Amino acid sequence: MKGFPGGLGALLLVSGVAGLIRELADGWFGFLGLARFLTENAWFLRGRELFANIVVAVLGLVLAIAGSRRAEA
Q1: DSSP 8-state class, residue 28
Q2: Is residue 50 within 8 Å of residue 20, measured between CB atoms?
Q3: CA angle 16, 56, 38 (to 5 degrees)
Q4: How far apart are CA 54 and CA 21, in angstroms?
Q5: With 12 labelled, which of 33, 37, 64, 72 sits at a CA distance of 20 to 30 A?
């Protein structure tokens, strides 16, 4: 995971997974503030926090894979 896309992907993946755990554990898991900041401050994501964290995690996974494949080439 070298380069900017890989690092950003890893950050988004960890943030999305932490947000998923936070939503499934009813909010007591406040490991990363980025997941909470994203879902609580965006008006269009209110009520869709679980879906938003899944999208963030999948986007992070895609970026991490793309970054690692780009580093190999």
Answers
A1: -
A2: yes
A3: 80
A4: 11
A5: 72
User: What one-character DSSP code corresponds to residue 32?
Assistant: -
The secondary structure of 4-70 as a DSSP string is: HHHHHHHHHHHHHHHHHHHHHTTT---S-HHHHHHHHH-GGGTT-HHHHHHHHHHHHHHHHHHHHHH
Burial degree of 63 (CB within 10 A; 0-12, 13-18, 19+)? buried
pLDDT truncated to tens, each residue of the chain (73 aa)?
567 888 899 989 998 898 888 888 877 766 666 777 777 788 888 888 889 999 999 999 999 998 887 756 5
Q: Are 13 and 66 in contact (CB under 8 A)?
A: no
Q: How far apart, in whole angstroms, are the C-alpha atoms of residue 50 and residue 58?
A: 12
CA-atom Rg of the chain in angstroms = 13
